[in-house]
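Quick one, probably user error.
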């Protein structure tokens, strides 16, 4: 059974014959079923007006708890009342008395047969034509200019109101984020819903509602026309000079030194590019002159000239033919009536009728330039009233008696509306009471009236004309002025009151109240981004995408193809560029195309033909996917959101605040409403979820918490034995002084080959296309949910935090990444000056008897004068010249590495004396100034010998640096092993590892073996592995990954995954013993940076609970999602990274990571180079707060993360965060210590749980996927190191 037979089975024979599905040959073909007959049946039911279908799709729900209803501030109530008042003012001014059912005669160019009527007359009074009935009474009441002046200024008061600005700002943000969330949830559904209809974007109708006839052709078209006429009409007289001399076309070319054979688009000089015309409307206007010659414009682009506009008409006919050829494109050509004389209408209409300028794909729109000052200057009109009379008198006369102006009567049947055009940026007087009281007949100065003055008198005459034409049963007209392209925002206020739709409207981006009002009243905006790009606003800053996403009634138009477009299809060029630039989907551009049809002035019968018979019904009832190519999902979403906004305004305006909730902002809960319990997924989405689930399972096998023995006893003996490169921990017993070691190790650790297999699997999964797309969608959803939370609960959070006993200056925060560049340049300079003054005669290398240099001698030998010791000469502050990897040069004071070694390193001739003093003074001073700041200081470990860690501990204790607010991090780098191997200090990689890890094992087993290290070890919390970007391992190193550490004797550094695995595995074994003995644990945190692949970040995901850097996550949504779901900490240093990786400055991801819910925190890393204040950590937070507009709650959340991710002991974290800090969600948050209201933690927790529950629902909905995952787990069985 084919598709058509199935449809007939469902619908019977009672289907609309005019429906596109019924007409389509494809649908009636004998081919096998290719369409979903249910979709087709729904479409036909809709066409028949039935309601046998419903639209279901996931949508964000907003819920206000009962105990918070009524918590509406008087300010919000006032704002809603004012917005509703503004809407009522527009309803008051917009005349809805239109002849919607008027039908164009079958012969559009036939004479109008309506006879003259004696029932109506008209009078021109105070600048407005007033139609009257037989009794001499006006047929409609006209609101006068004084009432308009009052309402215009009232709109200004409303849109400048503080409460209204705040309310509309947040509502527009909500609309914007809501659309992004909708797109993430339903883009695939929308696409699938249109796959079965017979239309696509190229076959649906699109109307160019804003295009000027004089520039409707492209430059290429005009050039071809000029060359053609230069050949066939070279001897035709086309111009009469002022002295009466006739000129042929060839004489015109010669006169202007033009050779038609050499014409090019460049020489034509009609393109208005941004380099010449930006903010220059005068230059733009000159581009209408071909070759810059005004008389060529008169000959070719004017309807009134010596040749009666023949060339202009022929160009127009060719443009119309292009529209007809496209079949799906229509246009409303704008043509000018100036008002300089009373016969302009007759001349224009005659030109149109004589040249038979008609097409079913085209209508006319009359533009009236706002250039009264020019007319007055040249004496064309004596006053403004005369100009208005010239514009409208013929129209009223023709309406009453079509035979008085027969051509005009025919022409008006093809006119859809009026426009008011000119440069809005031109200075103009204020529309004050004095100006509004000046009647048009009294406006006789050369000063141009203000925009609002023009608008009122245009509106008044059009409104009265429409009243008369409705009474006569004739076609009525829209008022669609140019507005909001540039100039003052109050232009948009006058258009809000008076215009049906507008052209441009990009200034709406500067006024959230007006933008919101245009949304509420769905005022159409025909935007021309390519035109705007050349004249007023760069394409990337054009607000079109934002306006569209927020639900404003926007469409795309070309404006002036002659000046701005390059292809032969300007309207499609406009759509194509917008789609590519702003990533519009097919549904998006189809919606924009539908808007263009609705905004246009084409007859209702044509709109029904193009959009479906019910096109003018609201919402889903008015949408037919078979015509519009827009799924009901999109239309239903727009409808629901619009109704929600209207209901919100009404409900808030009627709310009586509860006294007990006065001043308490309402709390809102957010959730995703899924129509059914089953998760609806396509094949690619199931593949994506499967990949994400596999990625989550891969990390679970490297759990840090699962130990094979939970006994905490100091009576048990332990021993470490080397097995396959890992020093494994075992229990041991001694019988008769003979050691017996347990066969099984204390903890299970995957062998290295399994780790590599898992790493490869994870890398493959991270490159999976569907998984990457799905992960991106999930992350954007998380981001938008957080934005929703800020929109609705931001004020509530602020109010709740104000009641807490702490603030951001009295909560604990940890600098999780602090290197030897820990002090500011100013502090270091002060310390150096003090040492030169007080200890200038001190030997700098007392260990070497032959080195008798003092500190003062060193500075003199370096030619550094004490008098010139300034921050600039110190040279440690990073600047633009040091961006990138040249940043490292700023570590050396005065550009000298010897001074760096002397003042900022532990291992030197003075045993790090100055470095220790500097550290001690700095941290004691920091503690005195801010007891809430704590630090994790990195100390470089080279791995040169087993005594190194004890030497470090001894140095720290000697200088009293074992401070309660300082924790130590052992930092190792991938550049140290190859250097030591090259110098024969170590024999292999295993020896290098043992030099670092064996002392930790020994002191764990016997505190007496390294007493200083034992004393310091409680303050050591982590090993941080850093990879040097400038020191990458060679490719052949990857071929030796199968070698055990003892076999790695190359002088090249192993790959980073090799380092990470063996350090992690050894720490796992060590921590097993330390935990059983009740000692603090050591973690591994690698510092990752952008690299050629994602090996580092993948390995860190498997092995670590936190990382530093994390910039690798920016371009890999899959891994970013895994880090979010597993809440792996990411320590970031924006100031450092912005200098070290300058290419990421514009797209630095910290804010995005935070919004999406990743566990991120801030650290200084290199305070000396980049911070100017003494409190570098506070400076880092302050800069982030300003850059990303963080609230105090945001800052508090980041600070809380810093404490959680730190290695400070549990008792310290209890003091900082509360007793239950380690619990998840709200249970682990103490607002009185963290300054984070419960609603913030609840939001983070609920959305994370929603994502987790989504995967369980996927398992329930798709058993075959669950089976596939189970097989994956079985095939990747856990393999551990076998004891030797």
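Nope, works fine. Designed sequence:
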């Amino acid at each position: 059974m084919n598709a058509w037979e199935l449809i007939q089975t469902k619908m019977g024979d009672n289907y609309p014959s005019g429906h596109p599905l019924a007409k389509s040959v494809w649908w009636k073909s004998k081919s096998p079923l290719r369409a979903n007959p249910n979709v087709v049946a729904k479409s036909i039911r809709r066409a028949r007006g039935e309601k046998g279908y419903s639209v279901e799709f996931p949508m964000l729900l907003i819920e206000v708890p009962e105990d918070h209803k009524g918590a509406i501030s008087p300010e919000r109530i006032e704002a809603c009342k004012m917005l509703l008042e503004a809407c009522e003012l527009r309803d008051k001014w917009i005349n809805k008395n239109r002849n919607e059912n008027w039908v164009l005669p079958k012969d559009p160019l036939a004479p109008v047969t309506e006879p003259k009527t004696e029932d109506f007359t008209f009078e021109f009074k105070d600048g407005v034509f007033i139609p009257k009935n037989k009794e001499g009474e006006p047929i409609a009441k006209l609101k006068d200019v004084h009432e308009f002046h009052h309402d215009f200024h009232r709109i200004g008061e409303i849109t400048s109101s503080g409460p209204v600005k705040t309310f509309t700002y947040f509502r527009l943000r909500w609309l914007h984020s809501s659309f992004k969330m909708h797109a993430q949830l339903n883009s695939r559904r929308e696409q699938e819903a249109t796959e079965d209809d017979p239309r696509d974007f190229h076959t649906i109708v699109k109307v160019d509602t804003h295009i000027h006839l004089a520039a409707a052709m492209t430059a290429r078209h005009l050039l071809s026309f000029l060359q053609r006429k230069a050949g066939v009409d070279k001897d035709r007289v086309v111009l009469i000079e002022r002295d009466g001399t006739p000129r042929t076309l060839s004489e015109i070319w010669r006169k202007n030194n033009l050779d038609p054979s050499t014409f090019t688009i460049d020489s034509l000089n009609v393109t208005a590019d941004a380099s010449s015309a930006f903010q220059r409307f005068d230059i733009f206007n000159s581009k209408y002159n071909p070759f810059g010659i005004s008389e060529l414009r008169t000959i070719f682009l004017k309807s009134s000239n010596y040749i009666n506009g023949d060339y202009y008409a022929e160009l127009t006919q060719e443009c119309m033919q292009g529209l007809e050829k496209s079949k799906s494109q229509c246009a409303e050509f704008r043509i000018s009536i100036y008002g300089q004389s009373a016969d302009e209408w007759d001349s224009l209409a005659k030109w149109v009728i004589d040249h038979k300028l008609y097409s079913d794909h085209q209508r006319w729109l009359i533009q009236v330039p706002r250039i009264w000052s020019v007319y007055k200057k040249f004496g064309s009109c004596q006053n403004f009233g005369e100009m208005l009379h010239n514009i409208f008198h013929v129209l009223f006369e023709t309406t009453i008696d079509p035979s008085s102006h027969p051509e005009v009567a025919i022409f008006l049947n093809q006119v859809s509306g009026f426009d008011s055009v000119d440069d809005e940026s031109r200075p103009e007087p204020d529309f004050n009471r004095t100006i509004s009281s000046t009647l048009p007949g009294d406006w006789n100065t050369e000063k141009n009236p203000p925009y609002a003055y023009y608008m009122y008198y245009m509106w008044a005459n059009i409104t009265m004309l429409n009243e008369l034409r409705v009474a006569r049963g004739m076609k009525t007209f829209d008022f669609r002025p140019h507005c909001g392209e540039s100039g003052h925002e109050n232009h948009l206020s006058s258009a809000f009151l008076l215009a049906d739709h507008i052209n441009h409207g990009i200034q709406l981006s500067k006024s959230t109240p007006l933008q919101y009002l245009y949304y509420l009243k769905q005022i159409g905006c025909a935007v021309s981004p390519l035109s705007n790009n050349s004249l007023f606003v760069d394409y990337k800053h054009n607000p079109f995408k934002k306006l569209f996403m927020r639900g404003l009634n926007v469409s795309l138009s070309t404006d002036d193809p002659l000046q701005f477009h390059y292809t032969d299809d300007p309207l499609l060029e406009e759509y194509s560029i917008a789609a590519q630039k702003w990533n519009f989907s097919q549904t998006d551009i189809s919606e924009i195309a539908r808007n263009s049809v609705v905004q246009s002035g084409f007859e209702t019968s044509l709109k029904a033909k193009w959009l479906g018979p019910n096109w003018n019904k609201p919402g889903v009832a008015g949408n037919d996917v078979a015509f519009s190519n827009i799924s009901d999902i999109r239309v239903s979403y727009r409808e629901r959101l619009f109704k929600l906004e209207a209901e919100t305004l009404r409900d808030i305006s009627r709310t009586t605040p509860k006294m007990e909730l006065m001043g308490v902002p309402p709390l809102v809960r957010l959730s995703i409403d899924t129509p059914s319990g089953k998760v609806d997924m396509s094949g690619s989405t199931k593949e994506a979820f499967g990949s994400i689930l596999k990625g989550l399972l891969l990390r679970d096998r490297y759990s840090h918490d699962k130990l094979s023995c939970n006994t905490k006893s100091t009576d048990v003996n332990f021993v470490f034995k080397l097995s396959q490169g890992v020093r494994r921990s075992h229990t041991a017993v001694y019988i008769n002084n003979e050691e017996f070691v347990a066969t099984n190790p204390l903890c299970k650790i995957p062998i290295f080959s399994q780790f590599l297999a898992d790493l490869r699997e994870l890398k493959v999964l991270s490159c999976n296309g569907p998984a990457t797309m799905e992960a991106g969608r999930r992350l954007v959803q998380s981001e938008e949910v957080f934005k929703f939370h800020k929109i609705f609960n931001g004020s509530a959070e602020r109010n709740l935090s104000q009641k807490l006993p702490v603030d951001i200056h009295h909560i604990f925060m940890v600098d999780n990444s602090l290197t030897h560049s820990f002090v500011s340049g100013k502090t270091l300079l002060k310390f150096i000056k003090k040492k030169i003054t007080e200890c200038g005669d001190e030997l700098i290398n007392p260990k070497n008897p032959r080195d008798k240099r003092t500190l003062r001698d060193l500075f003199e030998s370096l030619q550094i004068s004490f008098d010139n010791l300034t921050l600039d000469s110190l040279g440690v502050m990073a600047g633009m010249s040091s961006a990138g990897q040249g940043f490292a040069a700023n570590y050396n004071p005065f550009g000298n590495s010897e001074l760096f070694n002397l003042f900022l390193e532990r291992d030197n001739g003075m045993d790090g004396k100055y470095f220790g003093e500097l550290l001690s003074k700095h941290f004691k001073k920091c503690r005195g100034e801010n007891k809430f700041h704590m630090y994790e200081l990195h100390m470089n470990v080279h791995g040169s010998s087993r005594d190194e860690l004890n030497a470090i501990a001894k140095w720290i204790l000697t200088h009293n640096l074992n401070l309660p607010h300082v924790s130590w991090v052992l930092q190792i780098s991938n550049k140290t092993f190859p250097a030591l191997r090259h110098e024969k200090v170590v024999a292999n990689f295993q020896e290098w590892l043992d030099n670092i890890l064996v002392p930790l094992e020994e002191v764990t087993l016997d505190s007496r073996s390294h007493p200083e290290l034992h004393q310091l070890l409680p303050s050591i919390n982590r090993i941080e592995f850093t990879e040097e970007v400038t020191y990458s391992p060679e490719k052949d190193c990857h071929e030796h990954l199968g070698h055990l550490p003892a076999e790695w004797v190359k002088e090249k550094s192993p790959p980073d995954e090799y380092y990470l695995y063996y350090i992690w595995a050894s720490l796992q074994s060590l921590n097993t013993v330390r935990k059983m003995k009740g000692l603090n644990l050591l973690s591994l945190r690698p510092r990752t940076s952008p690299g050629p692949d994602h090996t580092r970040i993948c390995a860190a995901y498997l092995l670590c609970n936190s990382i530093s850097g994390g910039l690798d996550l920016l371009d890999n949504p899959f891994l970013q999602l895994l880090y979010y779901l597993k809440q792996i900490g990411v320590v970031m240093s924006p100031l450092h990274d912005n200098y070290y990786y300058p290419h990421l400055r514009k797209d630095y991801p910290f804010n995005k990571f935070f919004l999406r819910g990743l566990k991120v925190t801030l650290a200084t890393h290199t305070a000396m180079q980049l911070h100017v204040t003494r409190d570098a950590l506070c400076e880092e937070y302050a800069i982030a707060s300003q850059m990303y507009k963080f609230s105090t709650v945001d800052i508090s959340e980041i600070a809380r993360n810093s404490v959680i991710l730190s290695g400070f002991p549990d008792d310290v974290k209890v003091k900082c965060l509360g007793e239950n800090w380690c619990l998840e969600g709200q249970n682990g948050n103490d607002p009185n210590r963290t300054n984070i209201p419960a609603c913030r933690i609840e939001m983070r927790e609920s959305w994370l749980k929603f994502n987790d529950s989504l995967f369980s629902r996927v398992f329930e909905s798709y058993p075959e996927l669950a089976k596939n995952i189970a097989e994956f787990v079985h095939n990747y069985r856990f393999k551990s190191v076998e004891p030797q």
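The radius of gyration is 39 Å.
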